[in-house]
Amino acid sequence: MSSSRLHRNKPEREHSLLLRRVLGGVLAVLVLYSCASIGRIEGGPIDEEPPIFLGGTPAPGALNVQKKKISIEFDEYIKLEKPNEKIVISPPQVQQPEIKANGKKVGINLQDTLKLNTTYTIDFGDAIQDNNEGNPLEGFTYAFSTGGVLDTMAVSGTVLSANNLEPVKGIQVGLYANLADSAFTTQPFERVGRTDSRGRFSIRGVAPGRYRIFALQDADQNYYYSQPAEVIAFADSIIIPTMEERLRQDTTWVDSLTIDTIVERRYTHYLPDDILLRSFKENNIVHRQVKAERLTPEKFTLYFTVPADTLPLLEGLNFDDKEAFVIENLTGRNDTLCYWMKDSLLYKQDSLRVKLTYLFTDTLNQVVPRTDTLTILPRLTYAKQQKKLQEEREKKLKELEKQQKKNRKKKEKSDEEGEEQPEDSIPPLTLPIEFLPMEVYAPGSLDIYDYLTLSFKEPLSRLERNAFHLKQKVDTLWNDVPFDLEQDSADIKKYNVYADWQFGESYTFEVDSAAMEGLYGLHTEKIKKDFTVKKPEEYGQIFFNVSGVDGPAFVELLDAGDKVVRTVPLTEGKADFYFLAPAKYGARLVVDSNQNGKWDTGNYAEKQQPEEVYYYPQLLELKANFELIQDWNIRELPLDRQKVNELKKQKPDEKKKNRNQNRNSNNR
Predict the structure, then answer these.
(1) Eight-class DSSP state of 523
(2) What pTM was estimated for this model as a whole?
(3) I need a labelling partner for 138 at 20 to 30 A (CA). Which of 256, 472, 498, 581 fits?
(4) Residues 6+ apart with CB under 8 A from 416
(5) Which of 483, 500, 534 marks a domain boundary?
(6) Residue 610 belongs to what domain range?
């Protein structure tokens, strides 16, 4: 072979070698990718199908099972999403089982001893998903029995929060064949389920019989009601599971518009399927003092777990407590009390020792007086507070000094250019007068039912009522109008101004300087606020004609965020709301059994359900100068269908919802 021939083929050989290396590299990358992620590399339709169950050990529905290890196989690689949250095993397991996904299998290792002659169900919810797209296998349940019978009945329903009908997600719902009241407070659930994002639950593997049903937000994971802080629900009636045959129609489609066939299929439906539980938290009945807090030298706050009818008794041990405090009842229930110290000699003390007598729940669960000695220390001592204030003053003075130097240079430059400025253009080097901090609520456009409010950061020691002036503009004159000035019933640091406002009229509200003095010596500056009251045509009205109510009740008008806008008592079946701003509104009715004007929770020991709550089943869009008259039968719809989705904070899982919609559209 000639050298020229060899020379000519060298580039071809190099090109062939390079091509083989590139192809080999691509092949290696593809192999590595396939090992890391089983499934589609690129191209082709998106997989929207969930994993398919193939089989397991023990076999589904197997009898006389003795082994605690379970293996379940699927047709593709799978993963588990939040297994501890979504997978529910019944009977409940005191020791948490081991649940793992391994390739195409799910392995479960039960830690508790298997119970004799018992049906075990493993409800996966939507925890099982394919490895790539995350398509869930929804409603998948695996069951077997340790005896000769497999129990197959089921009961289902919904758990709603009693005070606002919100769906309760993730709460346990359990059954007891033991009908004694004490079972719920002493024994674990016998069968258990868990609610989904819609508040729906299903308890499977139930044997024929009579049961009591409960819901439990299980804080300590012992599957029974053992802590007063746990959220619970209970049904008054006994649950008796039954089943019946039903027909359903299965439709196959030629395309999105053309039906191929409709086939009727028989199936077994389990009842009851409409159990409704209203969850609540009992009032904390354990009386105790939580803490004493002194964030600033001038005041300290005492916290208690339970409201009380009277104030606790406080005796100073290293100071004279007689008329030493202004007491602020922060909640109005004597469970959070703020003690403002009047005398500077007292709040300059770093340590306050007090003897405190209050109500306490003893070991026999009896409420008795208890006396403790407390040492109350400030988070920031008076000396450090004054040092911090002095540093802030010096900082402000330095800033003023800098500004003064700039002003002098500016004046000197102006003088040189022949534009002389007066000496008072340079402000003196002094801090501005410090006034008592105050917020004034007096909007420029005032609602006809509203009032003015003055809010302070500390209680007042003095208020001059004759320094307040309210005037109405009549033609070109300002006439004095009568008004009431009252300390707010819920906050001693607030004062409200009430008057009989006239639609569309203009007003001015003035307070003279130094009309009010704070507890620690600062005075208020002068106030002047101008405002106009809204006209009647700027409002709308909503009138409800309510039926189906037994006993006293009140109606709460709600905004689009489910917050209370206004409350009126139900009078002869009517709830009228006047002078409403144009907006979207909902409504909630509370059956006020004890007529105390508020919703009251339940009590399991006394078999007392929480007070009933109903929602008007739609949002009302109110326009200005409109009246809406609405008939409202509170029992026309079941409770779980009353609250509109726009008002719900607990929404259905959107990912699952969208996936189901896509799947349904593809099946047409």
Answers:
(1) B
(2) 0.81
(3) 256
(4) none
(5) 534
(6) 538-637
